[in-house]
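U., I forgot to send this yesterday:
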Amino acid sequence: MRDNADLRSGTAVITGAASKRGIGRALAGRLAASGWRLGLLDIDLEVEKVAAALGAEHDVAAMGAVADIADPESVDAAVSGFEAELPPITAIVNIAGISAPTSLLDADFATWERVMRINATGTFVTCKRIVPGLVERGYGRVVNLGSTAMQNGGGTYSKSTYAASKAAIEGFSRALALEVAPSGVTVNVVAPATIDTDIMGGRITDERKPAFLAQLPVGRLGTTREVAALIEFLIGEEAGYITGATYNINGGLRIG
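Result:
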């Protein structure tokens, strides 16, 4: 096992990095500014432009690849490209996901399958492809995106299907943390509440904002910048004694 390794000498893979107002995009910018090499995955073609722009702006190696994160062949092709062109992967952050504001009484099976496939299966597929390499090299960080919805049973813009998918991610992450801890790999979950991103059904306008703010003791929405800062810490060198944890970042929506 490598001691005191500088993880930034390797590559951080981020899923869901194309959306201009998303957590993945904010994290990619933050890591690029800190000197990380980046492998960005998204189903949106924009991801290639995002990677090129960040690489040029911060003078770091960055690649974007279009992939369906729930398709093992698609993910394998993308990650193989990263492995061929970038330094070894030392961190993976699974952010790509979709919400579902439909209650169980109104949801159909297609909705359930789509949300579970992208959120839960997508996290499994990317971890299955990348984590073995981290274990083999004896060093790595995994951060998976959960949600306060998985603890509270939903929220203003998420109901049972979304909550279930995020709960699956948390359970999977805790089990994986135990499996890979002896190999120097940590696995943690970041669970945001109301962050002003498009996953909340588009921009939270002045008309929509009161419904969201009513739940939040801090009296404001969270920012992608704040979530990205937490994730950066968890994939950093100094977070090596933290694994199997869920970090709530929710403005006081859930205490404890």
